[in-house]
Amino acid sequence: MFNRNRRLRVVAAVASTSLLAGCGLVSSDSKEEEQEIVVGTMSAPTTLDPAAAWDGSWELYRNIFQTLVAFPPGATEPEPDAAESCRFVDTRNKAYECTLREGLTFSDGSELNADAVKHSVDRIVAINDKRGPAGLLGSLDRVEAKDERTVTFYLNKPDATFPFVLSAPAFSIVSPKGYPADKLREGDEVIGSGPYTLEDYKPEGHADLAKNATYKGPAKVGNNAVSIQYFKDSGTMVEALKKEEIDVTFRGLAAEDVVALNGENRKAGIQLVEAAGTEIRYLVFNPKDPWAKNPAVRKAVAQTVDRGAIAHKVYRDTVEPLYSMVPRGLTGHATSYFDRFGKPDEDKAAQILSEAGINEPVPLTLWYTTDRYGSATEKEFQELKRQLDGSGLFDVTIKGRPWKTFEPGYRKGEYPVFGRGWFPDFPDADNFIAPFVGENNALSTPYVAKEITDDLLPQSRRESDRGAVAAQFEKAQSIMLEDTRLLPLWQGKQYIAASEEIAGAERALDPSAIMMMWELSRKQSW
């Protein structure tokens, strides 16, 4: 098991030696403890069983499990991971077949074969956990293990995005011996086949990973061990980085900390890596609420909210305003909300309400999670309240809950309006539209939009060239705009802050902004 206290002593010793030597060398043959890397994040797993997670738990899964296909650094399409090869074996994108690598094993020594793949997917469907990823498998008909190394997925309709779906950590391959077919696995141990094994885990405390000696896959592991430390506050996390108690931070950096690090990094010996991101934030209106169900109220909110002020005042321009559910950088991105509502205009918002017979301030309660998306979320909702109340058209109350109670609350329909963040399951416009529409969507707020679900999405999924589907997604967003059931607010950038002795940070995020810990290593000279 990874000893974190030993790790801290080694860091101090290395730092001291470097100062004395002027230009210290950290050899690639250095002792194991000198290769251990400590990573800080504010996104702790909610569960260790992939069948029950459609959230930030995937960040851990990506490093301790394998999927059939995955996104390596710089890739725009999924490539083989546990698979040796994968392809559609028909002309209609309805039969997807993978051949596994030879000699794959789980960390308990059992064989990872086609039966294990079938078991892993079938149990997600069978368990159908309300928090889990079964909703991503709407196009799956059945899974067949043809032989020890060949597995075929038969789809009930053409779906060119299915390889993207399989790349999500939700579809991590698990051991049939350790993960029951009809219920979730209990306990804090994991049986996987990824680049690391989980050596020690404390919920909301830490996850200690060790290099998996039996791993067979494309990842080139640059370190011997990683300890992931889970923080509640960005400032505390950054202080730990400055004190060399951790080496890297990758999720939850507050805007003020990003700005400060950008000015102090040379002095503090910290590198700040910025990358384009597809993370988005948005508001959800509950159709069961007497006020939020009124389209005029929703459109008046859309006409009042100043995204630019949120981006500048709250996030210090580390995010950018978003006027489309599909973020910039993906085929299908549009500026629908700006084209319709333009700049914030209180007079236009008042007219929208007046025409609907609403002439008194609209009472709305806006809910947010206090510990899921970073410490700036509360300030964001305070700014939303200031804007809406300041218009004189609304009387807003804001309330927050920790994720463990916030999530069950929105699934039960308790919140009139609530804020959510979305980190894509895979980098395609489909994943910014499909999860939010239909009777059983990811938000538990039924949204019947038959033209989207029955026509536009099926049309786009028949197209293997994902660059050729812009028209369908632009049309889908125009429909969503008319309903204004979802209100996009901003699109984030990705930031990693790391000690200058750490290499690989610029390659460590996959297209879904999940950190691939194996890309991190200690520089051989600095």
UniProtKB/TrEMBL annotation:
<dbReference type="InterPro" id="IPR030678">
    <property type="entry name" value="Peptide/Ni-bd"/>
</dbReference>
<feature type="signal peptide">
    <location>
        <begin position="1"/>
        <end position="21"/>
    </location>
</feature>
<dbReference type="GO" id="GO:0042597">
    <property type="term" value="C:periplasmic space"/>
</dbReference>
<protein>
    <submittedName>
        <fullName>Peptide-binding protein</fullName>
    </submittedName>
</protein>
<keyword id="KW-0732">Signal</keyword>
<dbReference type="GO" id="GO:0043190">
    <property type="term" value="C:ATP-binding cassette (ABC) transporter complex"/>
</dbReference>
<dbReference type="GO" id="GO:0030313">
    <property type="term" value="C:cell envelope"/>
</dbReference>
<dbReference type="InterPro" id="IPR000914">
    <property type="entry name" value="SBP_5_dom"/>
</dbReference>
<dbReference type="Pfam" id="PF00496">
    <property type="entry name" value="SBP_bac_5"/>
</dbReference>
<dbReference type="GO" id="GO:0015833">
    <property type="term" value="P:peptide transport"/>
</dbReference>
<feature type="domain" description="Solute-binding protein family 5">
    <location>
        <begin position="77"/>
        <end position="442"/>
    </location>
</feature>
<keyword id="KW-0813">Transport</keyword>
<comment type="similarity">
    <text>Belongs to the bacterial solute-binding protein 5 family.</text>
</comment>
<dbReference type="InterPro" id="IPR039424">
    <property type="entry name" value="SBP_5"/>
</dbReference>
<dbReference type="GO" id="GO:1904680">
    <property type="term" value="F:peptide transmembrane transporter activity"/>
</dbReference>
